[in-house]
Amino acid sequence: MPVDIWAAVLENRRLSADYSVLELEAPEIARAALPGQFVMLKQSPGLEPLLRRPFSVFEILRDPGGRPRGVSILNKRVGTATRQIYDAERGQRVGCLGPLGRPFSVAGAGQRAWMVAGGVGLAPFATLAAALAASGAEMTLFYGGRSASDLYYIDMFESLGARVVLATEDGSRGARGRITVPLEAELAASGSNPVSLFACGPEPMLAAVARLAARYGCFCEVSVERVMGCGLGGCYSCVVPVRTPSGSHFVRSCIGGPVFDASTIVWD
Questions:
Q1: What SS3 state is found at 165?
Q2: What pLDDT is attached to residue 241?
């Protein structure tokens, strides 16, 4: 069951003028969180913004003894709520509800797991990479952004044993173009060796990854990015169209996701 707490800010690492990593003291959430789950945050009890905002759990923070102490979130300042998160200072308290949602599956020893991240879609993959490393899976991170200034934490993924493939739309780091270009090239060269794909980022990117997965016969899970009003399934603000044996219908991503089997989503 999720818990609802006012979590103390342990640190707020400003990575740039827009990106930050907020660390929260939340041992109850850290102990329970699984890769791909999220929390709902509200920086203050005021009315602006009125509702909490969803953020993927980025890191599980641990004390010197290795016990879960809290969680971090990767934030990009784009509006009122994310600006407040960016501006939060150590010692402030942030309303934090979680962990919420359906997590990723974790590939096992000897399996190839390819993570595909676009921009802040990197957020759910730190915990997934840690779980994949523990399971003995062979990891690759395909990571894309508009420019090199949008790419972070590459060294952390490499330290976990992930091979990292980069792409930027302006060509400032890695291949020039969208990250699906090197992904498709490597899928075409992979032959019959099975690959599991895990993707998070802008929806057009997720749709492109889902199409590639279908073309090359890959298992594929995607973490969708939806505006959520409550995170508990009460407001129906985050629905995703999915196919079932009985036909298509809408599923609330906060409880049916945010991780979905890519083949079940109606992309068009």
A1: strand
A2: 94
